[in-house]
Amino acid sequence: MLVLSRKSNETIKVGDDIELRILEVKGDTVRIGIEAPKSVDILRGELVQSISETNTEAITMDATLFSQLTKKK
After folding, report:
1. pTM of the complete model beyond 0.90
2. Other CB atoms closer than 10 Å to residue 54's CB: what's the count?
3. How does the record describe its quaternary structure (predicted)?
């Protein structure tokens, strides 16, 4: 992991076409602006984790339901 220190209005470049800009630092909160091509998906990490957990639960429930349905026959 690369760790950088940045101040307000400083940037970080990722590749040729993605730029992260520190917009504001207030207490323990940092506002970040991201400039990237529309083809690049940008999601919050906790959202990705929540979706992954929900999908895992759905698969488990589907497998359990399928098992129950096949036993009844």
Report:
1. no
2. 10
3. Homodimer; the beta-strands of each monomer intercalate to form a hydrophobic core, while the alpha-helices form wings that extend away from the core.
